[in-house]
Each structure stands twice: as C-alpha cells, then as structure tokens.
C-alpha cells in the first residue's frame, strides 16, 4: 500500500486495536480508535476516515447497529466499512452486509488478509471520491453553461423587446440590431466550442487539412475584431511578415483558435492598451502569438486555465465559461502542436501556438 489513508478502528477491546496497529503500522496509514459505536459516530466529523474497521460484538450498540446509523447518513455513506467478526454463520454475515457493510474479515485477524481487504476498500473509497468530484464538476459545468447562455440570450430578448416597442429612432434600432447579432454570435460560438470539444475528445472530429495562407487568415481575424477593439479603445496590431510560409491545417479550426485567443485578449485588456497578433515561420514550426497588456496569468494557473471549466483569474465586468482555452488546447494538439502562456513584459500575457511543419498536403484525419 503506497497511499496515505485514515482508518477508524471501532472495538470495545483495546488489545484488538493494538493487533491491527501492529499489522498496519508500516503501510502509511493513520489509525484512530473508538471504544464504542456511539463514540465513533460522535467523532466522525473530526476524524473523517477513509475506511472503518468495525467489531460486530460490542455492548450497548452492536457493530451492526452502528453500521446502519453511519450508512443512513448521506455524509458518511461513502465510507467503506469492514466488519471484524468471530461470527461464521451465513445468516450472521448476511446481516452485516444487509446493514450496509462493504466487506468483513474473520477473527482471529490475519495480517496479510487485513492489508489486502483494507487496500481493496481504499481503492473503492478513491473511486467513490472520483465519482463525487465528477458529479460536482458536472453540476458546476451545467450552472456555468446556463449562466453563459443566459447572458447573451437576455441581451437578445431585451433588444428585441425594445425593437418591438416601435419607440426607437432609426439609429437606435440599428444599434439594437447589432447587439442582437453580437449576442447571437456569442451563443453560436459557445455551442460550437462545446460540440467540437466533445467530438475531439470522442475521437470523432475530422481534421480537414488544406494548404492555408496564414497571413490572410490572421488578417481576416484582425479585421473582424477591429470594431470590438475600437469600442474598448484598444490598439489591435498585426505583426505579420510579408513572407509567411503557408500551413497545412484545418482552416476553420485554426481560425476558431485565433478568434478565441483574440477574444480573451480584448476582454481582459484595459482601455488604451494594445493587443498584438503575431505569426512567424521557423525551420521546423510555425509560431502564432497573441499578446495583451492585461493583468497576466499567475504561474500556478498557467496549466489549469487550459482545462475545461477553469476560468483562471476573473476580471471586473467580464464573464466567461472555461471552454475557450480548453478548446484551443484540444484543437492545437489535434494538429500535433502545443500552446502555452508566458508573461508579456512589462505587463500582460502572451499565448503562443507552435505548429509543426506538416508534410502531406491536403488530407482529412480523425482525431
């Protein structure tokens, strides 16, 4: 056993605890002791054991009764309980299992068997914890998706209501129509990111490689973000050499990656600052960079921001679901490349995509 664990031993005979302590003292396990079921239940909150070893035959409250109480509490029902018993009849053992026990071991306890059964229950405990974490993550994900869908949807509904009122000037009508279109694009982008990520993770995404003029693709992205940048009084700059080697990529997927990075840079950049999109052709790779002058990304966040539903640091007035960077990572890796974030001196962040030189022309592959 290589993991650290906490085990609660419940037995009215202290000598039995000493036996278990002898068998498990070399296994990186922290043992706690309770002399009765009622005392153990009162101490569960403080001990928070990973496994419980419970004697069956105890005065006042039997191990079976204590097991039933513990397993009836949702807070503790995920803790595996091993019943330690001198009983051997099938009826007695079935009573232990029916009470909620996960396993049992017979007295006198054998050290090899005890370690094997404890190790088995610790694996179950870890699996249970993993499932609970996944369920919490899924619940958080659903809440974040609902929130991020509601924001542009509310903008669409409000703007549509104002248009229907018939009380707006022509200029304001045009402005509200633009707001509706912007919000609709946000909804479409979020849904597209979710669908593409799911397909990539399931190995069902088709990477349709064609020969792409990277300079032209970057310039088109800059043109589409120019209006948004002007609204925030940002200077949007393209550092694109006249001679830039073509790349063999899925043009739609790479464009979405660049759009996501530009969108984040614009979101988190202060007014009056600069956002730069840069590309360069090296001997063995193509480099694409998006640099901003925002608050930057702390060292401890530079890996997790590329995980799903991780948003890193928040900014006032900015809402985002942690999908954009996760999509970028999956899409870049589907092309055999990598993505990272570094400091932009003197202030801000630089997101760098490195794509290897691809030889093979136009073709489609599944990832």
Distance between the termini: 37 Å
Briefly note the CATH topology name of the largest domain: Heat Shock Protein 90
Low-confidence stretches: 312-321
Q: CATH homologous superfamily of the largest domain - what is it?
A: Histidine kinase-like ATPase, C-terminal domain
Task: Quickly count the domains.
Answer: 3
Class per helix and strand makeup: alpha/beta
CATH structural class of the largest domain: Alpha Beta
Structural features, described:
By secondary structure, the protein is of the alpha/beta class. The chain folds into three domains: 5-132, Rossmann fold (3-Layer(aba) Sandwich), CATH 3.40.50; 139-201, Helix Hairpins (Orthogonal Bundle); 206-366, Heat Shock Protein 90, CATH 3.30.565. Helices cover 47% and strands 20% of the residues. The protein has nine helices and 13 strands. It has helices at 14-24, 37-47, 63-72, 90-98, 111-165, 170-201, 214-231, 251-267, 324-334, and strands at 5-10, 29-34, 51-55, 81-85, 103-106, 206-212, 235-239, 247-249, 274-281, 285-291, 338-343, 349-356, 363-366. The strands form three sheets. It has a five-stranded parallel beta sheet with strand order 2-1-3-4-5, sandwiched between helices. Helix 6 packs across helix 9 and helix 7 packs parallel to helix 8. The model is unreliable at 312-321 (pLDDT under 50).
């Amino acid at each position: 056993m290589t993991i650290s664990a906490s085990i609660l031993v419940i037995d009215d005979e202290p000598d039995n605890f000493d036996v278990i302590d002898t068998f498990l003292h070399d296994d990186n396990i922290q043992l706690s002791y309770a002399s009765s079921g009622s005392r153990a239940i009162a101490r569960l909150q403080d001990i928070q054991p990973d496994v419980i070893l419970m004697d069956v035959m105890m005065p006042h409250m039997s191990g079976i009764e204590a097991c039933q109480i513990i397993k009836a509490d949702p807070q503790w029902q995920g803790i595996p309980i091993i019943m330690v018993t001198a009983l051997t009849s099938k009826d007695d053992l079935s009573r232990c299992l029916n009470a909620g026990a996960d396993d049992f071991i017979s007295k006198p306890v054998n050290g090899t068997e005890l370690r094997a059964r404890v190790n088995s229950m610790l694996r179950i405990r870890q699996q249970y914890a993993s499932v609970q974490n996944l369920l919490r993550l899924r619940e958080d994900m659903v809440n974040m998706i609902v929130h991020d869908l509601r924001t542009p949807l509310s903008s669409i509904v409000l703007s549509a209501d104002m248009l229907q009122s018939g009380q707006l000037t022509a200029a304001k009508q045009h402005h509200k129509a633009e707001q509706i279109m912007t919000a609709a694009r946000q909804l479409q982008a979020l849904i597209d990111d979710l669908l593409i990520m799911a397909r990539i993770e399931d190995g069902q995404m088709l990477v349709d490689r064609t020969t792409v003029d990277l300079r032209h693709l970057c310039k088109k992205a800059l043109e589409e973000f120019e209006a948004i940048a002007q609204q925030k009084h940002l200077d949007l700059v393209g550092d694109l050499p006249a001679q830039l080697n073509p790349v063999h990529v899925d043009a739609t997927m790479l464009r979405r990656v660049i759009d996501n990075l530009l969108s984040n840079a614009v979101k988190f950049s202060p007014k009056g600052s600069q956002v730069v999109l840069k590309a360069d052709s090296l001997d063995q790779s193509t480099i694409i960079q998006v640099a901003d002058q925002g608050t930057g990304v702390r060292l401890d966040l530079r890996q997790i921001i590329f995980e799903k539903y991780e948003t890193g640091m928040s900014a006032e007035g900015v809402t985002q679901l942690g999908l954009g960077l996760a999509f970028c990572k999956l899409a870049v890796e589907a092309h055999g490349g990598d993505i990272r974030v570094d400091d932009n001196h003197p202030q801000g962040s630089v997101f760098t995509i490195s794509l290897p030189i691809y030889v093979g022309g136009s073709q489609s592959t599944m990832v």
